[in-house]
Amino acid sequence: MFNLRISLVGGAAILLAATVQAENWPQWRGPAFNGSTPEKNLPAQWSKSNNVAWSAALPGPSAATPVIWGDHVFVSSTDLQNQSLVAMAFNRKTGALLWSHKVSDGFRRDDRSNYASPSPATDGQRVVFFYGNGAMAAFDFTGRKLWERNIQKDYGTFAFLWTFSSSPLLFQNRLYLQVLQRDVPVDGRGRTDGPNESYLLALNPATGQTLWRHVRHSDAVAESREAFSTPIPNLSSPQQEILIVGGDCITGHDAATGRELWRWGTWNPTRIGHWRLVPSPVAGKGVALACAPKASPVFAVKTGGSGILPESFVAWKSDPSSGVTSDVPTPLFYMDDFFILSDLKKTLARVEPATGKIKWSIKTPGNAKYEASPTGADGRIFLMNFKGDVVIADAQRGEVLQNIQMGDPGDDQIRSTIAVSQGQLFIRTNRRLYCVGQ
To answer: 3-436 — its CATH code?
Structure first.
């Protein structure tokens, strides 16, 4: 109704387009690439058996977040019984399985994660799935395979100590994937027939063909070159810019060419060799956050610069003893502030972008670890821990409102972020996908 009251046709079209986009959750960090959505009137109370529109069984565990477009819910998953990787689509209204396709054989390489950790991405025409063994495939909404390829076969075996994970990004009619890896093989993993390069890859989403590959250099050593982060657009930048963190630095790249526009680093001046990076960047109010690993500070870097940025571009860095640090979860930007979830300090803090001032900080309930990234919507922050407990906090006051058990006995290492679309919450545990809200 609000759109209809706007007199300017252009303004109405822009607002309507934004509203339509907000009703979908097309990628891991949502419609604004920052973990938030302007959705309202979301469910306030539910259980596994109450106020649930539907739930669907899943064939295996995965840290991937479901993505939603219209009446389609797309899920990347393992198939535990067949030790394979599958792409799935469900009907948003009913939960009926629309299609499921095996993309690749394989399950996991270590006991901390599996190959189905990356989340899919959709632009409303197609959906792209990527897996930690290099397999990538795109489907239309009917389940017809459009193309497939394997990034390891095309550009060399990944040089990672642990199982590689980075979600694909669809932005400005391009498909992006980053591979930030070691420069030498580790435990037999990595190229021996050529250089092990870190790179940002851009593909044609319609065909899967490579548009360009930008090699990203780094002065980091050993495991500190490894990043499990995802490239994130900086929507507040006047230029179309992609943010990347890893290899002891944060960089901004031209979205059209991959050319590096600026970089800042390092949070690792002594070149510690075991500081792999997990959290992705997030931008808001003219700064971009880079979370240094293992209970180190969060750095807020001013955007809009060029070349090698001096230390004056660091707007602030946090004091980890205050709880403002993150080893795994990616921070949320919502209601003009950052919400930083610390998996190691067991806190959630609301932080002012310009100064780093803590507006409030609370302890996360329970003993289970929180590695899923926070979601912001309807004035609330949604978290989920390893056991599948969903914690809801009031974004304004920092008060815990609900703690709802959605996991099953024996569940552990649940890492999927909660997605929001069309007045409903989509919660993925190790064994089930829940659509909450009638």
So the answer is: 2.140.10.10
